[in-house]
Amino acid sequence: QVQLVESGGGLVQAGGSLRLSCAASGLTFSSYAMGWFRQAPGKERESVAAISRSGTRNYYADSVKGRFTISRDNAKNTVYLQMNSLKPEDTAVYSCAADRTLDSATVVSASYFYDYWGQGTQVTVSS
């Protein structure tokens, strides 16, 4: 059974930092591209960042470029999202997702490609 479990969310003041983790089990982690998505109340889910199987390529939404960094540790079956200079508009439930890809360099940003999803972790940024 595939499980993706996020952690690291919480309440932080604007300008602060958080590091989210997503631990995967039940799959061959290195065979999956990974992504982080977020959904704020009343808004649609949006792609935040994504990383290839090999970790050599990544994608960032324009709204987080220069502030967020996605990384992965295939030995630990974990993907991370380092979030710096947080803004109140970053407040949302953040979820990780896994997509089985054949190419080690493929980066997937669209949510409909993803096969497995975590339950999410709340990030709240106060002004």
Give a brief rundown of this model.
The protein is mainly beta.
Can you give a write-up of this model?
It is a single chain. The chain is mainly β. It is 0% helix and 50% strand. The chain contains no helices and eleven strands. Strands 2, 4, 5, 6, 9, 10 and 11 form a seven-stranded mixed β-sheet that branches. A hairpin with a 4-residue loop joins strand 7 (68-73) and strand 8 (78-83). It is globular and about 40 Å long. The protein starts with a strand and ends with a strand. 35% of the residues are buried.
Indicate the proportion of strand residues: over 45%
The biggest sheet amounts to: 7 strands, mixed
Structural class: mainly beta
* Rg, Cα atoms, Å: 13 Å
Number of strands: 11
Model regions low in confidence, pLDDT < 50 over at least 5 residues = none
Morphology call: globular
Number of helices: 0
- Oligomerization state of this entry? single chain
What is the rounded distance between the termini?
A: 40 Å
* H and E string: EEEEEEEEEEE
Helix content: under 10%
